[in-house]
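Dear colleague,

As promised, here are the two records you asked about, laid out in our usual form so they can be pasted straight into your sheet.

NAME FIELD: protein one
SEQUENCE, THEN STRUCTURE:
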Amino acid sequence: MLAAAVLVVPASATTASYRDDAFLDLQDLTSAFQIGAVHAASGTAHALGPTGSTLRLAAPESARGRYTPGTTATAAVDVFNNSPGLAARLDLTVAADPGTDEALAGAVRVSARAVHDDGHVEDLLGTPADPAASAVTLAEATAVLDRVLAPRGTTALGDGDAFTPGATGSAATVEVWLHLVPTPEIAGRPGGSPDLTLTISGSST
């Protein structure tokens, strides 16, 4: 399984992204348009104004090197539209961090889907039903959600607030599968730990 830690980077003023509380310097930001994420362990919400963030997917130290050829790692992120009156369209990208072993990164195949809070399921990348069959490489792992997230319809949450659902259709869970193909370049290795970054950004619609 992959654990997540957050890195924050600049983005244009027309986008907003999320982070969770692994980032140590939380700020109190407000904006007419925001998207946010729910920290799974604590159930707290974290949101940003018009800046960008990335979610780093990395194996915890206790599991370093255990991502073996032929296995699949997973990550799930709960995201929500924190804008009271604006709909949000989300896009996502999965990419290898700089310095990641090229052979290892080249063997990763990506699948992803969005499960909306009203039960609608939207396949985004690869083959979520069978991640081992995906042909999507990290170089191709970019997608835009077809369905927008509805406006929250109520007061926006602040960083660290207990998450409370907004209007139906305003939240979704993004699920990502990373299958490590036993390519000739890595077939003889006992295992590895590619460091990847998942970026989810939003624009108002």
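NAME FIELD: protein two
SEQUENCE, THEN STRUCTURE:
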Amino acid sequence: MSVGAYCSRRSDARLILSKLKQPPVSVVSCQVIYSQFGLAIHQNDHQERRRFVEWAQNEITVVHDFHKRILFSDEVHFWLNGYVNKQNSRIWSEANPQVYVETPLHPEKLIVWCALWAGGIIGPYFFKNDEGYNVTVNGDRYRAMFTNFFIPELNNHDVQELWFQQDGATCHTARATIDLLKDTFGDRLISRFGPVNWPPRSWDLTPLDYFMWGYVKSLVYTDKSQTLDHLEDNIHRVIADIRPQMLEKVIEN
């Protein structure tokens, strides 16, 4: 949620991920504002979001369940100490004056990627090197994940004509990465530098951000994992228990 914002992001979110059948709402202009997570929201963002809404509405006039055919993807950091580094999926907010949590300078963490659509979840995938150590995400590692993990997993699902969505992170949008995604999905790619542009700073429009990461983190830390292996097992277990019926309701509502 943004702090001090005088503009409606909720109306955009409802248009995209609720019914996507209502007429567009007027967009309230606003100055550049900053959320508590340090992300700037610019006036031009609403123009991009409006264009995306109108495009999605046009798609739904042709395919009524279009919104159920989008594979939303994202990665998140899970800290062993219980801090989740995602814009709107945090266990503790260090900016909250009512709560003080001491965090190590370099806490142990996992970097977890998933893709979600109304029919299921592909993942989790944990970014690690050949020795099994956790690593950060760059373009090479992202493409390796896509080629060695995501595509084989996708082929195991009986799905056709899915669209693929990703945000505009640098590791997602290198030319080699976009070419790889186009080779797989053709024009069914929603991404910065893709055939369909994903509006920037729109974490509230993807169910991974507004639902799944928060839901998962609310369950994986209940037994206070003492090791990264234990935390990883918990993440696998919680995500495996998410049923398609829940995902469909999330996409609809």
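A couple of things worth noting about protein two: The CA atoms of residues 168 and 192 lie 5 Å apart. The longest helix spans residues 43-62.

Best,
R.
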